[in-house]
Fold this protein.
Amino acid sequence: MSEAATATVQEAPPEARTVIEVRDLVTHYGPREILHGVNVDIVEGEIMVIMGGSGSGKSTFLRHLMALQRPTSGSIKILDHDVWSLSQKQLFELRRKLGVAFQSGALFSSMTVGENIMLPLYEHTKLDRTTMEIMARMKLEVVELSGFEDLMPSELSGGMIKRAAVARALIMDPRILFFDEPSAGLDPVVSKQLDELILRLRDAMGMTICVVTHELDSAFTIADRITVLDQGNILFIGTVDELRSSASERIQNLLNRRSEEAEIDPDEYLRRLTGDKEEAEGMPR
Amino acid sequence: MAEGSNQNTAQSAFGRFFDKVGRTSISGLEEVGRHGVMLVESLYWLIAGPRMSQPVRLGSVIAEMMEIGVRAIGIIGIMAAAIGAMLAIQGIYTLKVFGAEGHVVLGVAFSMVREFAPLITGILVAGRSGSALSARLGTMKINQELDALEVMGINPVRFLVVPSLIASLVMVPVLTFMSMALGLYAAALYVRATLGMTMAAFFDQTINVLSLDDLMHGLGKAAIFGVLIALIGVLNGFLVKGGAEGVGKATTRSVVQCISAIVVTDMLFALVATF
């Protein structure tokens, strides 16, 4: 039996409403299978952190949760809607209930911070310009960036760009908020500020938040539950305490930041470097 | 034995050649197909967008018109005037052999209106705006801005492609008309200076020689060039892979493809229109 199959899996609390339900999700890039039948429930009002090493499939999984990528098989229900059975119009309406803060911020470089934040309002509502500007300033206040609305994204620091991206993600008052690597490329102080912001959003607005990260400290600070992905399989779903006390060797390796790579035989290493078996054998040792 | 081996090598080289030709042809057809799909998708969003609460914004179209059209007026005007004068210079030089310099108006009018104005405008817009479109969309793609649009419930084709397509479709013919006028004006100035023909006589002869069909021939071609420039620019931007280097490659590819498509279409259009 595979380690993934024996992984500790905690079911979502029965009384909580499931807002994202992923069943048997399989996805491929060309002939390569990336996710091998993933099952996850995310419940209303929780912060679910998705963790995993590089190549574990967490970014691909997030693209599925954001309804940006169609899986090979399996289903994704967001707010009780089976995403890929919706019409295009219904899918657009569903996406308006989701907010995403991308890793790079993904602010439009040709627009000011304020225009970036107002864009969803401009596209989806009939509000007048003054109301939109007031709403944008309110969201900037939430992320502690008030007064920066007239700057261009290129004039902001890395942490400010991420906070501006959160403000844009919040402008339509989404039910679910996604963060892709919020701490990536930030210093510890700014990273901590973002963690506090994520917690504040859950507590003050009751949002369901899904964060993809590989930063353990950040995950332990903000997570209600953690999902650990490993080579396209779910290795663990549970609380921070359960993760810490897990007996799984792979999880302990992840927590202790240990590489699972086996020790390399020096001869094999030489062969890999030279790319030629015979040549490697003929070389002096 | 050696002969057999040589034969096998020749056969495999022959096979590889046809394999390469086949793969290149298929990828070329795929490319044409992608442009067709993009055009159909753009038309779909233009027509169905308002019903799906995704209308094409007039403001975006006007902004693109400014970028593709109005800001190109200077350079296109200079180029068109230079080409008009050049046609007059070469025309007079050639016709002097027959002592028929007075007929230069005929050559300049036909060449400028039917051929040079749309061609030079198309090539300049391709170099200016086709590459800019690729670079802009490519950068947006690698910065995840296209994904951001999708998750905000904004279709990128409707938001980014359709305004550029409409602007290009409208502005390339408008710029071409301007090129025709400026090219003819520059030619008239040269003819007046060298042959002493008045401007009024030059334009009187031009109007007599040209028909509405000639004008529509030039403007029709320009409209097709406009669509080609927008589609090629946009598609190369959407297909960018691999960061900044990918954007650079897409930009170069876009300009080369745009100019090639313009020249080939120009030839086909001339062939069909004069058949």
User: Anything to note?
Assistant: The mean pLDDT of chain B is 90. The CA atoms of residues 15 and 224 of chain B lie 38 Å apart. Residues 57-274 of chain B form one domain. Chain B touches chain A at residues 52-54, 139-140, 143-145, 147-148, 150-155, 159 (CB under 8 Å).
